[in-house]
Known about the structure:
Elements: E1 6-9, H1 15-26, E2 30-33, E3 38-41, E4 52-55, H2 58-66, E5 75-78, H3 81-89, H4 103-110, E6 118-124, H5 129-137, E7 141-151, H6 158-164, E8 170-173, H7 176-188, H8 192-199, E9 203-206, H9 209-217, H10 231-242
Parallel strand pairs: 1-2, 1-8, 4-5, 4-6, 6-7, 8-9
Antiparallel strand pairs: 3-7
Helix pairs in contact: 2-3, 4-5, 6-8, 7-8, 7-9
Amino acid sequence: xxxxxxxxxxxxxxxxxxxxxxxxxxxxxxxxxxxxxxxxxxxxxxxxxxxxxxxxxxxxxxxxxxxxxxxxxxxxxxxxxxxxxxxxxxxxxxxxxxxxxxxxxxxxxxxxxxxxxxxxxxxxxxxxxxxxxxxxxxxxxxxxxxxxxxxxxxxxxxxxxxxxxxxxxxxxxxxxxxxxxxxxxxxxxxxxxxxxxxxxxxxxxxxxxxxxxxxxxxxxxxxxxxxxxxxxxxxxxxxxxxxxxxxx
Length: 248
């Protein structure tokens, strides 16, 4: 290695952050762990007797399973491989997964088969309206259960300071909300514009097109959207772009 490559990660401060740090370490990068999300469970569980049940995150699956919820006869729909893996790890069988891991992908997957069907959407309080609008357009009889809320830890923001100072080689955003909370932390410190300018000199990686759209709408230029919507793919491509010699 010829130089230190600092990569900021924003995952919740649990096994997801720990595994992200371990992965970046293994890739030869220096992780900057700056959690931008805290999960606050609501205690709710998905509605029963739905024809389809959609989960949009690993967290939602885990909370539902911990509460004793089981799919039963419902057609279980997962937004992507991370959520699918979580479902399989608790013994559930996923019946549908879109090619594009997003709300738009879910709508495209289900639009032709949910007319008149009861569709339960189990997710966080920051779920995309696009999914519900798409289900409306498909004439689905949908309901939504908020399994958890996502809030920003008050101590977050170290990465924004480093970005503003030009000391980050890369960032890895895993959702639109991590982008918003990152910028909120920067604004709280009075360095929002400096932080965005600092990211112009860094490699900015995001998971999925919705996160790209959010970042770009706030003036952040996105360099990388991996083909596979997993943190492993994101971290690998971000580190390769930030320091190609690291992986040679």
